[in-house]
Amino acid sequence: MASPRLETYCCPNRDAATQLVMNFQPEVFCGVCIGSASISLLLTILQLLPKKGQSLRKMPKASSSSTILLLISICDILGGLGIIFRSSVWLGFPGFIANISVVNGTDVWPSAFCVGSAMWIQLLYSAGFWWLFCYAVDSYLVVRRSAGLSTIVLYHMMTWGLAVMLCVEGIALLYYPSLSSCENGLEHAIPHYITTYAPLLLVLVVNPVLFRRTVSAVASLLKGRQGIYTENERRLGTEIQIRFFKIMLVFVICWSSNIINESLLFYLEMQPDINEMPLKNIRSAALITWIIMGILNPMQGFLFTLAFYGWTGWRVDLKWRKREILWESMSSSTVGENAYPSPVNYQSNIHDSKKISTTDSQQTDEAISMLSEGNTSGDDRLTRSSPIYQGW
């Protein structure tokens, strides 16, 4: 799981609230984290692998949207590997971990492992948050015809730059001037929690606004294609709206427990004695949400693939060769760098009547088909546009 409490636990003089949750059934908690992360890791990879029985042919290079979705999955996979490694060491070498609590100890490796593994997990999940924010921005800009494959470089710079900067800044403030004094006052801990939860809160607050504006812009584009708003076009707009809703639903499910848990622990930290009887229910709620975090945080990777592409099936094609996604162009030409592949289900919903020949209509079709990448409808389950197909 991903929580700033992981870094706080590396302080020998950690606060009482952190001590409470980290010492609550550590074997059970680590086992839960390993189990959840392992299941999510295997199912995520299964979702992204190419499947047998798919008819694929050549297409243009992948869109920025599919690239971002793939990068989100990669961040979740690497973050899950960090959780598995960290929890396995905690279970397998309890004596090694016990040395973290030794003040002024001579063995630096336990503390180095504690800090390094916690930073790895936090950095990867934080980068995933920034990529999810970039996906919302890119979706809106594509509909406004202001983005293309060239903008992916800017997204890389923003995502990795901000993720690394905030992570390093938060850790530096927390451990200043040394591990032995990192919890002597909230002035060390609060900046660390702010830098950790800033991208999470950004996604929770800003992404729904961007998604809503994108859906409104899609409706306007669909109405403007032929001057009418047919049932097929309304259905496509609804599919895009549902896709955005699924993404936010998964995010809220996986991370709302973190916000609740952190609020409860901060409340306990402000009390003179967290072991008082009137605080029993607060302590119980904090411990329950702590276990829930260990289950839901690692499951984000698999749940996101379901939101992005739906269930892709079990039949994996292990004959590695260059994979291309099945697509049909809305016209006979592309529009430079900003052209996007059109998924089959979009063709079946929208392109039943006639082709749009003008450049403006073609750009509209390509922008909307990019947003519907990965959607499935009816019998089109074998033609979903998983980004992994576009990379082989």
Describe this structure in words.
The protein has 13 helices and no strands. The chain is mostly helical and 392 residues long. It has one domain (4-51, 62-309): Rhodopsin 7-helix transmembrane proteins (Rhopdopsin 7-helix transmembrane proteins, Up-down Bundle), CATH 1.20.1070. Helix 3 (26-48) packs antiparallel against helix 4 and helix 4 runs antiparallel to helix 6 (109-143). 45% of the residues are buried. Belongs to the G-protein coupled receptor OA family. InterPro entries: GPR143. This is G-protein coupled receptor 143. It is found in: Apical cell membrane; Lysosome membrane; Melanosome membrane.
Q: What's the arrangement of secondary structure elements?
A:
Blueprint: H1 5-8, H2 16-22, H3 26-48, H4 64-92, H5 94-98, H6 109-143, H7 152-174, H8 186-226, H9 231-269, H10 280-309, H11 344-350, H12 359-371, H13 387-390
The helix-and-strand class reads: mainly alpha
List the helices and strands in order: HHHHHHHHHHHHH
Number of strands: 0
User: How many distinct domains?
Assistant: 1
- The CATH C-level name is Mainly Alpha
Q: Mean pLDDT, nearest integer?
A: 78
Q: Which overall shape is indicated by the principal axes computed on the Cα atoms?
A: elongated
Largest sheet features: none
